[in-house]
Amino acid sequence: MDRLDEFALLLAIIERGSLSGAARKTGRSPAAVTRILNEMEARLRVRLVERTTRRLAPTDAGVRLAEHARRVLGDYEDSVQDVTGMSGAPSGVLRVTAPLLFGRRHVAPLIARFLDQYPQMRAELLLTNSIVDLIEANIDVAVRIDTMGASNLVARRVGEMRRVVVASPAYLARRGEPKAVAALARHEIVFQASADGLNEWEFALPNGAIARVRPNGRFVVNQAEAAIDAACEGRGLIRARLYQVVDEIACGKLARVLRPFEPPPTPVNLVFAGRRYLAQRIRAFVDLAAVELERYLSLNCP
Questions:
Q1: Same domain (yes/no): 136, 283
Q2: DSSP 237
């Protein structure tokens, strides 16, 4: 059996969670799937999948081999597409993930333009504020507003983004504008709950240190849009990414406060797997998105 087919079968077994499911996905009989898996394990001299009458789960070795398999199959598919598509426009399916609000406002229109430019392409956009494993989820490109740690992913920086504190002019007229971080203790705060449950706000102090404070707030929401709406209604101060409130600031619904204490901005990156051969569809989208996002961020999010 071809080694690439073995890799594809192993991934099908793990992704479907059963030998019968893998058989249906790959068009083989359950007996053939079992035989091929047994032959792989015998040749490699390692158990790849633990199976009982009730459950199937990959071993640590199986998980590691599956990670390599995804990478190898991705490189193979991309290199074939790159060679066969050299004389034509990109085709196939582009899969992108982005943060919820930023993705809806800025990435979805970019993908629409990309599809207009390349009629043979299809696209899937996953909007989530969670960090998605690109290899596991079969994602081509991620838009991430975060500092990149150690990773084998490639990050193309397109700009940076600040966190800002804002409130409505009506609220500030009623309660006064905070001029120092300590003044937050005397203000109403609308919190946007974070995934880890922490609600600390970071500020840059004049001596260069970063202060982390947890203001006292009575209103907690789990979506940025709800927090922004509450701030526009005069419910209190909120902290948000600048892109989330830039329109409200521009039209006067919200005002930026504590600006001298804003922490350093966070990089905005286009992230994709560090494959040897970058698929034509990925290269074309990254080139388009980089230009447009760099322009937007430089003009609208100082």
A1: yes
A2: B
